[in-house]
Design goal:
The chain is α/β, with parallel strands linked by helices. Helices cover about 30% and strands about 20% of the residues. It has two domains: about 220 residues, 3-Layer(aba) Sandwich (Rossmann fold), CATH 3.40.50.2300; about 160 residues, Rossmann fold (3-Layer(aba) Sandwich), CATH 3.40.50. The strands form four sheets. The protein has a seven-stranded mixed β-sheet, with helices on both faces. Strand 10, helix 7 and strand 11 form a beta-alpha-beta unit. The protein starts with about 30 loop residues before the first strand and ends in a 17-residue tail after the last strand.
């Protein structure tokens, strides 16, 4: 089936995976279960959603290949379909589209959207129409504190759990690191990560040598890095988005800074393509990666492979896939295609994923979404912690940083 993007101007040509006549009937045992969503296929966020429409199509195919979604009240499985629009990375466009999904397409449930700037206003649409919504990359905790009853989210990883496994790993390494130096991009998320994990470092007995902040767009880090080199930290912890830290990583190499480990909170394929071997031996976080076995891991690996989505390149993909998995399980827990029953199933619910259980607090924010620790080894990302699910062993201290 040919996939089409939509704009507000041409609604008629915007449906994906569902014919123009496909309209869900809530509670029906004879119709497909229809998920409505938007994906930022154009605009500022489009670089983060490569092949997500194809991935969504493949997810539906995978579920339907097993018969569909089990609905106990119907005594059978029902097929899954999606209605997808392009929200163009614009909050007001997303609001209009979710309103259409509710009133014109009459979808059963919402999955997505992503990004806090979009998820915040869209949550009001879910509340207005009493349609349960499992959002993807909507990570701002304050959004979940508005008292919404129909909003649930699967962001990965959460700030309070971001480097939990990494700090567990370094506590077990020999030789044991004794000091850590934080370099942080001036961004609310990255500042929050440093605030959280600098405190954790101190609690763990690490001496925090410094916490410096750099503005987004800074190109010359030589003065800052001269102080790092003089401090001689065992661990250099970089809390930054990948694009902002490109010159930082390059200059760390050029200036010959040494450490037991250089850790980057957002170690991605994009960063690797820009700096190449400069990140060899570096550690970082990833929500999940193929090869790490868990619930639904075979399904997710199959979906990613067929849609040509690389989790290392598209690190926000897992939160989006998790939103689909959670909604499917919530329907099966409820046992009926009924919005209120599904909302009750989601409330304080526990749901399975390849990365472990997703457990919602009473405000719909997950309490369990951490990240795996990976290390760049011979130009490839290798999951090294927890050791029980690792795809390779950590190399410690990293020889490339000695």
């Amino acid at each position: 089936m040919n996939l089409k993007k939509c704009t507000l101007a041409v609604f008629a040509s915007s449906l994906l995976f569902v014919s123009a006549q496909a309209v869900s009937k809530v509670g029906s045992c004879n119709d497909p279960i229809v998920f409505g969503t938007t994906i930022s296929e154009s605009g500022a966020f489009s670089t983060l959603t490569d092949n997500w429409s194809k991935m969504t199509e493949e997810f539906a195919k995978e579920i339907n290949a097993s018969g569909g979604i089990e609905v106990k009240s119907c005594g059978k499985k029902l097929p899954l379909k999606f209605v997808i629009y392009d929200d163009q990375s614009i909050p007001s466009t997303a609001v209009s589209l979710y309103e259409r999904l509710a009133t014109v397409d009459k979808v059963d449930f919402f999955v997505g959207p992503d990004w806090s700037s979009i998820g915040n206003p869209v949550a009001a649409i879910a509340e207005k129409h009493k349609i349960p919504m499992v959002a993807g990359n909507v990570a701002t905790l304050s959004i979940y504190q508005h008292g919404y009853k129909y909003l649930f989210g699967t962001p990965y990883p959460e700030v309070p759990l971001w480097s939990e496994r990494y700090f567990d790993m370094i506590s077990k390494m020999t030789p044991k690191p004794k000091s850590i130096y934080f370099i942080t991009q001036d961004n609310p998320v990255m500042r929050a990560i440093t605030d959280t994990w600098s405190k954790k470092a101190e609690e763990q007995g690490l001496k925090v040598l410094s916490k410096v902040v750099f503005p987004s767009g800074l190109m010359d880090f030589t003065g800052m890095l001269a102080k790092v080199r003089a401090a001689k930290p065992d661990i250099l912890y970089i809390s930054s988005f990948d694009g902002a830290s490109v010159p930082l990583v390059q200059q760390i190499r050029q200036l010959g800074i040494h450490a037991m480990d250089v850790h980057h909170t957002m170690l991605t394929g994009s960063l690797y393509r820009q700096v190449g071997k400069d990140i060899e031996g570096m550690t970082g976080e990833l929500p999940w990666y193929p090869g790490v076995k868990g619930d639904y891991s075979d399904l997710v690996e199959s979906v990613l492979k067929r849609s040509k989505v690389d989790m290392f390149d598209d690190i926000f993909t897992f939160a989006r896939v998790a939103s689909y998995l959670v909604m499917v399980q919530a329907i099966e827990k409820a046992g009926v295609v009924d919005r209120e029953a599904v909302r009750q199933a989601l409330y304080k619910g526990t749901f399975k994923s390849p990365a472990g259980n997703i457990v919602f607090s009473d405000n719909g924010f997950p309490e369990t979404n951490g990240a795996f620790t990976l290390q760049m080894q011979h130009g490839k990302p290798v999951v090294v912690w927890p050791s029980s699910v690792a795809t390779g062993k950590v190399i410690w201290p990293s020889p490339t940083w000695q």
